[in-house]
Amino acid sequence: MSENRYVYVSARIRVLEGRLLSEEDFGQLEAASFRQCLRLLAGRGWEPGRDGTNVEGMFGREREKVRRVFQSLGEVREDFRILRIPGEFQRAKAAVKEDFCGMKPPQGEQKDRVWPEDPFMTERVWWRREFPAAVRSQAYDRLPRGMGEAVRQARRSLWEQRDGQLCEIILDRAALEEIRREGEHSHIPAVRHYARMRVENADIQIALRGMAAGWKLERFRQALAAAGELDPERMARAAAAGSRALETYLENAGFGEAAEAFGESGAGLERWQRERERRLIGQARRDVFSGGLILAYFLQRRRGIRLVREMLVEKRGEGSEGGERMRA
Questions:
Q1: What distance in Å separates the CA atoms of residue 302 and residue 118, rounded to the nearest whole number?
Q2: Gap between the Cα atoms of 71 and 324, Å rounded
Q3: What is the pLDDT of residues 31-66, one digit of tens each?
Q4: CB 35: neighbour CB atoms within 10 A?
Q5: Whole-angstrom Cα distance, residue 321 to residue 311?
Q6: Do 205 and 246 form a contact (C-beta atoms < 8 A)?
Q7: Residue 325 pLDDT > 70, yes or no?
Q8: Number of H-type helices and E-type strands within the chain
Q9: Which whole-number Å values give the CA distances from 166 to 93, 117, 155, 159, in the listed order?
Q10: What is the pTM (predicted TM-score) of this model?
Q11: In angstroms, rounded to a whole number, what is the distance separating the alpha carbons of residues 192 and 82?
């Protein structure tokens, strides 16, 4: 991909950046009521509906806008396959479980879960029809790269071991390993940085959740992926030994801020991870010539949708309308 091609696409993305929610916008949303939030969002181009009751539809429309922009990138799209990988493996989980249970979810539920939930999965017909058929027939060579062996192992964990947790762990780890490989092979510095950060964040989060669930050493070994400066074997041993050992390991591996946040709570760790992403976006936005700005735009869009959703869930839950009517 030539530098000039990235400059052209980046120029288009720079125009779209003007429509993103700013930090000032988020500040206003934070201070506003639920109804005021919807009015503010409508003024920034979001579509909450006439009476503001179709909030889920609003998020669906925002994801569809992201999908259309991603689709419009043409051949450049493949340089950002890393954005599709999590959705691809989530679909693999669903297909493996549906194959095992011998049933599919209702059509509406299936659509909401995958389409347009993940705006980066653009080959809709293939994923809805041919992909589940390939999983059922065990045609692993027809699956996307990095997925075939993981699906085979995940399917066996259900059919032979009846271990649903292991099924998910296998596919989650395979997704992280594919993200890492995609980053290693990318010629875009921001993609390489993002891949390493994404896997490191996931490993730390997995360790936290595994300790809370009382995992043994072998389960940690099955779940953790190689990630930058984090060694999965050493990290598994530390996590199995307890919170103090894991904090010490993270500090020695250069993740002192994570260890400190880890000691506070899960919420502290999440804040640290989100701050890492925010800093990466800021760095990537300055990279016009090798595609960093393009990655930053999609990360910003995803971050914006996530933050708005969290704000509205909280505000609706505080009001009289009942937060249970809006999915978290």
A1: 10
A2: 34
A3: 999 999 999 999 999 988 776 667 888 999 999 999
A4: 14
A5: 15
A6: no
A7: no
A8: 17, 0
A9: 11, 25, 10, 12
A10: 0.88
A11: 10
